[in-house]
């Protein structure tokens, strides 16, 4: 595997994760008020269910961040990134 030593490229590539997470959160905030969302999840007047669904995204990130080091140490970092990418794709569908 070719090693990349350009610090700016590495930092720019690393910021993509934060950008994708921000895109995730912002797209969710746009969906919260739509009629399709409120009808499907039957949110209605109760804000507790809506808050729980919104809270699940950062909670999943916390669990993934805590588990990722153990998975990477056991199976390798490449396999861990491949597995998490597959989970990301499945979750976005």
Automatic annotation (TrEMBL):
Membrane topology label: Multi-pass membrane protein
Membrane-spanning ranges: 7-31, 51-72
Compartments, as annotated in UniProt: Membrane
Major facilitator superfamily (MFS) profile domain location: 10-93
GO cellular component, one term: membrane
UniProt cross-references to InterPro entries, sorted A to Z: MFS_dom (IPR020846), MFS_sugar_transport-like (IPR005828), MFS_Sugar_Transporters (IPR050360), MFS_trans_sf (IPR036259)
Keywords on record: Membrane, Transmembrane, Transmembrane helix
SUPFAM superfamilies assigned: MFS general substrate transporter
GO molecular function: carbohydrate:proton symporter activity
Matches recorded under Pfam families: Sugar_tr (PF00083)
Keyword Lyase carried by entry: no
Sequence similarity: Belongs to the major facilitator superfamily. Sugar transporter (TC 2.A.1.1) family.
Protein's recorded name: Major facilitator superfamily (MFS) profile domain-containing protein
Organism, as annotated: Aspergillus bertholletiae
